[in-house]
């Protein structure tokens, strides 16, 4: 097999709106003796990818000269943080001792942020890869397991010592992380109270403008409730029901103590979760879909000893890179998530595979459309690139 | 000396506005063989006392029949949580072994909330008392040391491991706790950045109505800055300066890392502190003067690992009651605060002594006026009852 010397990559030369910033370029692939070359099989679009293009994410991909372009002065950054790949060549100086998975054909996922997964190929240090050779785990599952399910798994583990029968309350329960929370909690015999919007959003998820008019009722509310219940949700209520429905409030008051709240909405929605938490509980924020700051009633902090924290999978991964005990913990996490997935207890999100066939303008349009769909969040399907 | 059988007490029979609820009654004092009788020397008015009258505080004094009243069916609760007293008699069954301070004439302060200090006398279990026989500590200092200075002391100790040279940022820096923070921090070689309102409030501190019009400029701003600086503040800025003044922002950016934020205001003021904290720092809320929920930008929680917590001295005292190591910690705290006070390094707040001479309507008017002054916070002086 002739060594591969270039890769088709989705990226940008300047931060801005994806619509105008995104580009498709062929980039140089310099194989290294101490690295492996991988071919990406599937590369999902996550909100962080979009924020990186916009330049608003705290970690940004590196802009560097693309020597394959005529205009090599203009730097180019390759997008994409999550993905599943296979090893297609192993450098002769790579130390494979004790790591028999470092071989051609092995399926791998990315250990940390910034791998540049929106690309056909990449040359990578094997220490940045995690083997994903578990049986019964599809490529789509492998491609989408390292961000959302891992976030859900860690939040259910790292903040409160939850015992079977304990309850977790979360907003944005229909998000990818929210659905993973429901399923992982179920597998641990934890109860979940799940809050969803009862109205449709009138602004795109990534828009910074705020809607001044109330949103219309969500047409698929009953179907959504049924779907989350089928995943294992013990209770699914809308924000409005939680605020106004006495019988729901009474049920929450009489239900077992609620030790953990998970917030991906912010604003008053965070406060409305916080109110149901038992004294000393944790409210963990991992997203901010409303674009409003997290609001916490002062009395809950002072008198209820509420602890308000945040979770970022990227930081956990950085920590794990320097702590042996967390590496062990990560292996256990991936093993458990793969076990749940293979057993049908952790559903892979609905995905739309977006084929990228070349670097022509038609392909770029397809890429931009997929990113736009991901930004609007309207299709309900996760956009996943596949390079042909 | 004839045993004392009744006490003049400030209290209420029904929760409500202090103006209408407060009453002065003679209450029965039943001495007990296993308790001591104390005479209160000074009894400060704190915000918690007012909230207890209003019925909005999470711990409320007990309403019980007052057998000395003609209408003994109507229950009465004695107000007051903080105060300095002296032991005037010791029950014959009180175990004084190893506690030679349990004797007539000893000066004591209250260990926990709910002692009913707005009274001439009280019969108390000695386990609820703390000896306060340190030299060079005035009655006024002793009367006001267990709430505000202790709150400041604990917040500077229990959340972050602060080393000399580390920086603390706080809002409401002119509050009693804020001033104690400045002085205790100074004694530990910690730097403080102190945020004050640059405008005067137009609503009483305990009002729940919000002001719709902007407040007028604070006339005493320069004097206030000088006073806090004289206490040891490294920097004193207004909310407005912090938001708009580039040179102040530049200074904060270049100053040493800020590990701890203290918030007694809430709303956007909490957010504006949170922004200056280093990653992983703690923002501790102990008050909510603005009556607005604490606002925290989502990104600080997720990307900066900000920890948002609350502090309540009452909870700490409850914890300490059941943990021997915290009792030791409390003794060290009181010793240190008394040392600072005696050395002139921890100023006693400006106080106005309010004499209560009898149970007539004139006396009640004097009591109500003092509570009103405390609610409005306008005089700048702490109101302290003294029963004649």
From TrEMBL, chains A, B:
SUPFAM superfamilies: GroES-like, NAD(P)-binding Rossmann-fold domains. Keywords: Fatty acid biosynthesis, Fatty acid metabolism, Lipid biosynthesis, Lipid metabolism, Mitochondrion, NADP, Oxidoreductase, Transit peptide. One of its GO terms (biological process) is fatty acid biosynthetic process. It comes from the Eukaryota. Its EC number is 1.3.1.104. Residues 16-375 form the Enoyl reductase (ER) domain. It catalyses: a 2,3-saturated acyl-[ACP] + NADP(+) = a (2E)-enoyl-[ACP] + NADPH + H(+). This is enoyl-[acyl-carrier-protein] reductase.
């Amino acid at each position: 097999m002739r060594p591969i010397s270039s890769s088709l990559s989705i990226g940008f030369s300047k931060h801005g709106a994806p619509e105008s910033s995104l580009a498709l370029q062929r980039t140089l692939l310099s194989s290294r003796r101490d690295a492996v070359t991988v071919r990406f099989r599937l590369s999902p679009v996550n909100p962080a990818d979009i924020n990186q293009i916009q330049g608003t994410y705290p970690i940004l991909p590196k802009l560097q000269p693309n020597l394959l372009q005529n205009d090599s002065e203009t730097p180019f950054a390759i997008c994409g943080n999550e993905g599943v790949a296979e090893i297609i060549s192993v450098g002769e100086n790579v130390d494979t001792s004790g790591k028999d998975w470092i071989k051609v054909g092995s399926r791998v996922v990315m250990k940390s942020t910034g791998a540049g997964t929106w690309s056909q190929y990449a040359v990578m240090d094997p220490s940045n890869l995690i083997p994903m050779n578990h049986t019964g785990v599809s490529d789509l599952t492998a491609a989408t397991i390292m961000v959302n399910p891992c976030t859900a798994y860690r939040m259910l583990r790292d903040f409160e010592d939850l015992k079977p029968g304990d309850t977790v309350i979360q907003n944005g329960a229909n998000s990818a992380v929210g659905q993973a929370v429901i399923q992982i909690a179920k597998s641990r015999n934890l109860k979940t109270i799940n809050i969803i919007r009862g109205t449709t959003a009138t602004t795109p998820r990534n828009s910074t403008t705020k809607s001044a008019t109330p949103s219309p009722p969500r047409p698929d509310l009953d179907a959504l409730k049924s779907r989350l219940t089928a995943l294992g949700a013990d209770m699914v209520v809308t924000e409005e029901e939680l605020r106004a429905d006495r019988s729901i409030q009474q049920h929450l008051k009489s239900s077992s103590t609620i030790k953990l709240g998970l917030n991906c909405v912010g604003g008053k929605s965070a406060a409305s979760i916080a109110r149901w938490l038992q004294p000393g509980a944790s409210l963990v924020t991992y997203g901010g879909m409303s674009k409003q700051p997290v609001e916490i009633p002062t009395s809950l902090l002072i008198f209820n000893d509420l602890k308000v924290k945040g979770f970022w999978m990227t930081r956990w991964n950085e920590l794990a890179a320097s702590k042996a005990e967390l590496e062990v913990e990560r292996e256990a996490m991936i093993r458990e998530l793969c076990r749940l997935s293979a057993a049908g207890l952790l559903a892979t999100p609905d995905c739309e595979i977006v084929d990228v066939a070349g670097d022509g303008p038609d392909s770029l349009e397809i890429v931009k459309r997929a990113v736009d769909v991901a930004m609007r969040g309207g299709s309900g399907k996760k956009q996943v690139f596949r390079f042909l």
